[in-house]
Amino acid sequence: MRSVAVVGTGLIGTSIALSLRDRGITPYLLDENPEAAHTxxxxxxxxxxAPRTPVDLAVLAVPPQHVATSLHQQQVRGLAHDFTDVSSxxxxxxxxxxxxxxxxxxxxxGHPMAGREQSGPLAAQADLFHGRPWVLTPAGSxxxxxxxxxxxxxxLCGARPVVMEPSQHDRAVALVSHTPHLxxxxxxxxxxxxxxxxxxLAGQGLRDAxxxxxxxxxxxxxxxxxNAAAVAEVLTDLALELGAAVxxxxxxxxxxxxxxxxxxxxxxxxxxxxxxxxxxxxxxAPEGLSLxxxxxxx
Length: 298
Description:
single chain, alpha/beta, Rossmann fold, 6-phosphogluconate dehydrogenase C-terminal fold, 2 domains, eight-stranded mixed sheet, 54% helix, disordered C terminus
């Protein structure tokens, strides 16, 4: 793969472009916001403007709700021979692309599992994807050349390509990315009701638990809306767990002697399961915003 265009020069798009520059490829940078594209170019991410002839691969670094329309527009204009995206939702954008009549033989869905709570080109890092999973979700009609180029992009950025079905991907990120972001945001929002005397006691634990809540609200509204069913399923189960914990705490508060053993046992079980669950990801490569990144264009 010798030539690439990046559509969307936010955190993820600019980070991809910087990674490619380090590998000797100078991307063409396109963005509806000219200032963002020029900022990315000033960082050394590539050159602003469309190529004179189609590039090998165009990377659509736009929010999920814009993937299909962007793919259609760029295929019509002949920007590239093959296309991929980096949004954190796969089923809905691919279905919308099919409805618009996009050539899915030349498109491979993608999602680098990396990001930051900051957004925009100034937050970009050339090593953002090193060692991280990069999910690829080719449709059944995806051509071998398109799959190969999308795979090569992930590898050039230092990531580990992982092939998944679109629905499998969306269920996975609902659990490991989208629901955690929403829960972190809800927890952080409770701080708005805290007294100043209370907030000054905040330690590193609270900062760690709410770090990702600093992500762009508009972008994350798009992400959660695009993967609403899968997130709602995870959140429903979590709500049941929270409700049971609330009941146990209320019983302990109202009549500790009568409900002490049962209430304490329930809380201990919940905490112990949390320890076991945390152990399943301990030592794995840390995951950032998905893709968030994808839309911050992730």
